[in-house]
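Ticket reopened. Same input as before:
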Amino acid sequence: MHPAFSVIFLTTLIGVAQGLFTALMIGQTYELSESSLSFGNEFYMTGAILVLFFMGGGLIASFFHLGRPERAWRSATMWRTSWLSREVIAIPLFMFITFIYAYMQYTGSTTSSTLLVGLLGVIASFILFYCTGMIYACLPFLREWATPLTIVNFILFGTASGFSFAAFYAATSAPELIGVYASFAIVLTLMGWATRVWTLRRNAALKPKTTTQTAIGAQHPQVKQVSQGQMGGSYNTREFFHHKTAATVSKVKSAFLILAFPVPVVLLFLGMFTDSSFLLLLAFVTQYAGLVAERWYFFVQVNHPQNLYYQTIS
Amino acid sequence: MTQLALVIDLNVCVGCHACVTSCKQWNTSSGYAGALPDDNPYGADPSGVFFNRVQTYEVGTFPNTDTVHLPKSCLHCEDPPCVPVCPTGASHKREEDGIVLVNYDKCIGCKYCSWACPYGAREFDEHEKVMKKCTLCVDRIYDETIPEAERKPSCVIACPASARIFGDVHDPESEASKMIQKNNGFSLMPEHGTKPANQYLPRANNTGKE
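Engineering reply: fixed in the latest deploy. New output:
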């Protein structure tokens, strides 16, 4: 598949936002458990605004994917059947709850009420993770995506990068939380590393279900395309092929396996013990860059069955 | 329930592309689909939107090879995977005749339906920024202002070899259904459970050997 940067930035940015919101709630719970701690309403309010900032960035990116963005409102209508439509509902729902949460922190609402709204926000963010993952996992013949691992990876990468950002954020305004956030980020990153490697192995072992034989209904084992019926390019030759060399794809794969997982783990570890906001920011930025590469690879790895019809120009 | 579809006889198709060009002509001028754009048609890197293509395959091992021409357009699946994924309801399957269509006024151009189609039957119009696909000439087959014999998809009328049969594949008495029955009609990519309405008639054993 052609890797569309609009979708790459949408899915990675909202992942950070969703993880960051969960991190805020973990922070609030931690604050409750330690009576000596008090981070103040502003910490949570600013955090929630940052969540909205990341969500907004993702939304802006998503509009570049649409041919007719002015009609985007229509995309909430088919929620009974379409995971994309469900995502379109889950995004504003999560943003609305985040906004309410930020407003309640601003007005100084009671801890129990902000915790309740925060819990609703966490639930909304996980519904959103599930919807986003299912957009890809629900297409059975795109077999690299059609696995629960797709959803697991979206959740782990999103929360890991959200907690990495939260660790940096804590270093700037609530240093007592650095240890908690960085520990969560390290564990989630290691888990994401494991499930991503697992996914890569699974996909490498996939045996194609669709062949040129089933595509054209030929019985003979020897079938080759002589002509795809067109000399020039078309949507079919652009959208479903990545037109990158195997070497490039392989380099990106190595890059994300290093940048998204082990490097941030080391930086988070160092940052946690030195309370260095620079190292923690570096951890987040490295991880985010790695996850952008990961999402690029996520698209490129898919062999769309329609490609069997476009193998030879003439 | 009616299910209009095409039955394509692979014994008869000679790969002349008349169905491709007539489809392009009708759907560019008819108004329903709007123009099917071509970009840079005479330049170095031409590109265009088509609803129908004829592809050619060589089947078998030399010298016992068959050249098979495979005309391919939207198969108007009975269980079309492109329809439930559409977030706006633009992509739909008509109750009355089973034609899968895109409502170009509702389409937001997210391209998700094209990802969900294993056949690559949908093509994005970069000028109108909406997804387009074969309409089975829905703007022609019901048009009472043209002679009844011509109320068929453009590709069917254009085919000089009559390789394309148009009809209701749910009506066992239709010519299309009878041809499928008699000649062991088959579907493309049956493994995906999309139940394509369009069927193909396989090459008969024409080697002279039994």
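Chain B has five helices and eleven strands. The two ends of chain B are 40 Å apart (CA to CA). Please confirm and we'll close it.
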